[in-house]
Description:
The protein is an alpha/beta fold.
Amino acid sequence: MTLAIVLAADAAASLTTGAGERLVDRLVGQWRRAGASDVRVAADLTELAALVAGATGPALVSGVDLVAHTAVLRNLATSPVGPTVALVLTDPPAPGQVPVREERGQVVAVGDPAGATGVFGGALRVGAADLPALVAAAEAAAGAAPGEPAVAGQVLGAGPACAVDRLFAALAARGTLAFAQRVRLLVAHRVGTPAEAGAAEAAVAAVNEDKAELRLSVKERDDFFTTFFVSTWSPYVTKITARLRLSPTAVTMLSVAFAVAAAVLFGVGERPALVAGAVLLYLGFVLDCVDGQLARYTRQFSAWGGWLDTMADRAKEYLVYAGLGYGAHAGFRYGWALAIAAMTLQTVRHMTDTWYGVLHDEAARRPRPVTGAAGGIGGKLNAASTKVQADTGSVSYWLKRTVVFPIGERWALMAITAALFGPLVALGAVLAWGALAFAYTGALRALRARWMRVPVMASVDAALHLDDGPLARGVPPVRRPGPLALAVLGALSAAALLIWALGTVHAGDRLPGWAVPVALLVLLVGWLGARAPHTGPLDWLVPAALRAGEYLFAIAVGVAGRVPAWLIFGYVFVLTLHHYDLTARLEKRQPAPPLHPWTLGWDGRSALLALAAIAGIASIGLVTLGAYLLVVFVASVVLAWVVLPARAGRTPIPVGGGDGSPG
């Protein structure tokens, strides 16, 4: 049950609309239409605290001076970005209103006009976990908490403030993280006089709410290809899918079908099939954007939909790599090798993307470090990046968004090069641009991370996200030379083994019997840093380094054992599903997979493959372990999204989609 409270504690409670309806009654009706199951009016902050104290689900709170589209309240109530969300307006701050600064969608400063990006809009949604803080904030702002400082006065100064402003200021002072909900194309204003109320009503009436909602379904900022070659017409498809009552999950499944069909056609390798595959790949990407747009347009969000969207994006892309690899293999001996390399590179890149995003979010909530007068090279890079990102539409802005090789550009490059030049050129182009983008982003992010100095790995379950197994978890911590250095050393040993294996197989020879065990021992040096504190400024790179080491070692074992390349691809593909499951759960704030201990960890899997190589059964080892991991993955998905929710009395596999698609 969702509780909505209209805080009618200020003079605006007496204001009426042009039709004679009180603003408080208008807001009560709007909250009901926005989805609130229980709407109350609180005369003051003390009454609000009493109402919230009995709530069991999220609470919606608004002041009485807000005139807005109902869609503004609905979007706030259903926002997928975080448990606690505040409405943020770009209006000039009125006396007593709360200036806020947001960064990366988070409200990172409240009450400080310096650097403010907007003002608090007089409405917020508070997640269930933050309800005790809301009760305490209401009591403090009302002066009902004995011995507490006057938080509202500290944050807002001596000027007058509405009750809802004092409440939000007190909540922020308790360290509650709030995400920002912008209005954009809709209308929301806070009013204090009948004239202001009339002007706000006229502004609301002048905007077609449904058309604005459809336009708002497109992300405010997206990449070049998506912005100019997809989002220009995908909203029409979104409107059609909404009229057909398709769910975002159904659209996701359609995009998967298009990508699989494209992969099959790429595998055929003939020109008509390649052109048809390119067209299907493009249409599949359009649908991949539409599922997110449909979720935003219809407000159908769910943790399942977000997880599925993330997993489907990666699975589709790698299936296309497989189709290109098969098609290239017909005329080129190493077509599958290129597909394996592209998948490995892209997965390691995604691991760094995920953890850098987590790092940046954490850094946004902390005071800025300063190294020297200008903040050092990392500070200068951060300032330059912020300046470019703010200059939307400029050449430098689009270059920055394109050079990092996002998903739209990857799919466009594959479609165009496959249709014009064939699968071999398509894979080569993806590898070349991907490697350059990895080098560019890796270098700049490392410099900025050293400046930020945020030990982000220390704030999560490191053992889970490092994917440590029983071997790594059992060793004593070794603090020197540090977790990152040890993980990189292991990855380099696996890379050396792979290069050696490729050379010997190409020459018709075999690796000496001691090569794989020695490489395994060096790879497992990463054990030593598993339980050490991950507090270094670059330790967010450790998961990517461990992924690289495990993948390269598995490929090397396959090459040395003369395992068919398609089988090696299949094994690494299953590994990527497991690791993307972990990153998707991190991004969507979901708990660990139910069967995670059964996946054996990167160390246990590598040890088993080494034993298979030593025994001369590398193919059997890869097939058996890959099949086992796939079964565990599927069983874990069923448990997490069907069995456990059913036992808890929740709807298994909700039809809503997520907000994780590129569109």
